[in-house]
Amino acid sequence: MSCLRPYQPLDTLKPVADDIWIVDGPVISFGFGFLKGPFSTRMTIVRLAGGRLFVHSPTPLPASLEAEVRALGEVAFLVAPNRIHYWWLADWQAAFPSAEAHVAPRVLEQAKGRIAGPVRELGAAPAPWSGEIDAVAVAGAYMTEFVFFHRASKTAIVTDLIENFELGRVDCRWLRLLLRLAGIADPHGTTPPDLRQTFRRNRQAVKAAVEKIVAWAPERVILAHGRWYAEHGTAELRRALGWIL
Fold first, then answer.
1. Helix, coil or strand: residue 181
2. Residues β-bridged to residue 100
3. What is the pLDDT of residues 62-90, one digit of tens each?
4. Which among 94, 106, 102 is positioned nearest to 119, based on CA atoms?
5. Counting C-beta atoms within 10 Å of the first and last residue's C-beta, which end of the chain has fewer, N or C?
6. pLDDT at 117
7. What's the CA gap between 78 and 107, in Å, rounded?
8. Which CATH class is domain 14-240?
9. Are the CB atoms for 59 and 9 separated by under 8 Å?
10. Which run of H or E residues covers position 229?
11. How many CB atoms neighbour CB 196 within 10 A?
């Protein structure tokens, strides 16, 4: 049994604002060697003009969720925002073969053939959703993460740049201690220290990218891991990313 309790109900659409939803997925184990820990997962879906759907960091796709998604509109874009958020993209490709896959740098290297068909690298060309969703690349030594902003709902979408685990959902003392030490426990979530070090190697460019993200002035910030910020989004970004500003 995992030390971390997920955000039930899983694998179902949960409205955030007009034309934007989250889907909470399972708890997964992630890390290297014996340094592995549990992570909650979360996908974001945005409905664009004409009913096209932008699917960010896909989670598992059971039949019930597939039916819900098909009722929303046409799955047009599948997005892997950094090199460690790609695992279920292939399942969505199989279910929605006409959808375009857009991946961050090094995703294909990391996926080792798991992602099929043609893909487009984020940032290599103007994005087909650029009129409705803005994007900023935060480039570190280990990975580049793309952070998105849905203009209409004033919602920022973050993956690993900020993590915010609720200790009330953690059933193991060792994990609660680790989250506190790492500084990624709610309500004070921030960039995990290991990623922070890789971003610091490119400090000036990362600072400029974060300044652009803050300048969006989002009302809310969706996170992939832990409690997301349903209000005071800009203030939460300034606090969580203050280490680089």
1. helix
2. 77
3. 999 999 999 999 999 999 999 999 999 99
4. 102
5. N
6. 77
7. 13
8. alpha beta
9. no
10. none
11. 18
Tell me the C-alpha distance between 130 and 56, whole Å: 15
CA-angle at 224, arms to 113 and 107, nearest 5°: 20
Residue 168: alpha-carbon gap to chain centroid: 22
- Global model pTM greater than 0.90: yes
* The token pair that represents 175 in the structure block: 């994990």
Phi and psi at residue 141, in whole multiples of 5°? -70, -35
Tokens for 61, please give them: 């796709």
Helix segments in the chain, DSSP class H: 63-72, 89-95, 107-111, 173-182, 193-200, 203-215, 233-240
Q: Which two tokens stand for residue 159?
A: 């993956």
Question: Domain locations in the chain?
Answer: 14-240
Dihedral over Cα of 184, 190, 194, 195: its sign: positive
Q: Which residue has the tokens 């060697």?
A: 33
pLDDT in tens, 101-148: 999 999 988 998 889 878 999 999 899 999 999 999 999 999 999 999
Angle at 18 between CA 134 and CA 188, to 5 degrees: 65
Is the link from the previous residue into 97 a cis peptide, with omega within 30 of 0?
Answer: no
